[in-house]
Amino acid sequence: MGGALPIHQIVAQLGLSTNDVEPIGWYKGKLAAGLSQRLPERNPGKYIGVTAINPTPLGEGKTVIAIGLAMALARDGRKSIVTLRQPSQGPVFGVKGGGAGGGAASLVPSDEINLHFTGDIHAVTSAHNLLAAMLDNHVSRGRNPVINPSTMTWRRVIDLNDKGLAHIITGLDNVPQAPLRETGFDLTAASEIMAILALSDSLPDLRKRVAKIVVAETKTGEPVSANDIGATGAMLALLRDAVRPNLVQTCEGTPAIVHAGPFANIAHGNSSVLADLTAIQLADFVVTESGFGSDCGAEKFFNIKCRSSGLRPNAEVVVCTVRALKYHCGKFPMRPGESIPQELLVENLEDLRTGSVNLQAHLAALQKFGIPIVVALNRFPADTDREIELVRQLSMDYGAKAFAVAESFKYGSKGTMELAQAVEKACEQPASFDFLYPLDMPVADKLETIVREVYGGDGIELLPLAKRRIEQFERWGFKDLPVCIAKTQYSLSHDPNLLGRPRGFRLPIRDVRLAAGAGYLYALAGDISTLPGLPREPAALRIDVKDDGTIVGM
Fold this sequence. Notes:
By secondary structure, the chain is α/β, with parallel strands linked by helices. It is 33% helix and 18% strand.
């Protein structure tokens, strides 16, 4: 592991005792159960979110910047912790590759974090599929409460991009344990249990949330929960250790907590509440990243995660790159995994200015939450001084409080000092954080508000199934929940081909689903899929293991 510190040194760095962290190998550990509630009272640290413009096939380096920022704050004499999601094996072997940073701004041990880590994702997969098996058995055996089989909504999950499992038929052999029915698999990152893991603040809270999961309806139309079919205890046994956050480090020895992995395009896209509640008591600055662009991850960070945790951010960082902004001008169609068009690597101020409307849209939306915004330009070798200066000018014109160039991948903390100093100053500015909508607003109006205020659209188009679902959930008493929109990450709209700052669109909502345990309703917009497939050239083709056990290509 090169210069990695043994986990007990990271524990000591945080002022914790050996009883506060259970070592798992040499370089990672599990925080002790209930640690956040036992820590002595202190003024909580500053809370910084990291988000981005709409992602492109080029990669913007958001995780690299978040890690680099935490390391730079530490270099500046601040006690800092970065809190991140655990990568899913779906993108690791699919398009995106590993999710533990890279270059001089990466996590250690990156291979383990990208793969099995401490088994949390496997635990979520097992608990989710146990509930599916118990539900099938409950229905087939005719147990009470008697369930209408056509209303069974709980699918199965897998932590791989295996598109052939998205729509399947189970119970084909007329077995007594499972009814014949159409169902399918979602990615584990889309599981409600993953969302619950990320939003729970303790093991008792996890129990309450798991018990509330709605899996079907009775023949009289009443909701049936995981607790109603007797699954809560067994599921909790599988999740007991998964609820404890994982402590690792950056390549410079800065503490990092990696816990939970809900996607932002199909879930709420943020690492765990419990990780942040612990980190905020241990550090002067806590840097947390939300998934994809601010229209996905940051909006849900504010309206869902912050409601659940009670924490309020002091500043938000928006990551962009010159080449990604030029891509958003719409002249350079390409797919993930394809070679970068050489035209993107040549100075072109006109294309850059045109594509920067995507950054403008994100800044306009984020300012509505009442906190200072800092734009971080992740610099690449082909970027010219004139291009960088134009992005700086535009960022300030669009309402950013500060702009900084970061070269975290190449130089680590040394290359992120300008950003760290800008963030420190931003955190000293007054903030008046507020949510985008009140919880007592009608469900459809909450969706309309997000589309208008964050995406810049004209509103929503509720398809018949979505209307029926909303009416049903409001009748069941779930109207006062926040909402989570599942949509493409590549555009502010539902159409991944609409780059830049699309206008005049209405977001089609084809379905609305209930995540009662997680505590939100989630709407499916456009053609969003909850189980992605592999690309023509998956990342798995590049991954191998040397004779000495070293993993390469990830």
